[in-house]
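Annotated sample (chain length 98).
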Amino acid sequence: MSSWRSFWLYGEIWDVFEGSGFQAKYDVTAKKSGDVKPGHGYFGFDCSACSVRFAVWDDPGAGSKPFTTKRPCVFKVSCPHCKADRLYRTDQVQQFRA
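Output written by the structure step:
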């Protein structure tokens, strides 16, 4: 049976339609460069258009645990450098220290 479910991920509540056979898509926002602090851990992506790495979420474990989701999903985000709006899979999430 398909249903909507909510889950908590990095300080935000996400709604997912489960059982549909499709990956969930989440619109997320890249952190602004002024919000990224040197020495802190982040999860983000390498832009598929310009190759610049950018942060999306804080890494509360500071590198001790990898990024995980319960089910495969994709994230839609715009690169703060070149403004390219792209979709990224969970296996494309990069864990890094600024």
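Annotation: The chain has one domain: 22-97.
Annotation: The first strand starts at residue 3 and ends at 9.
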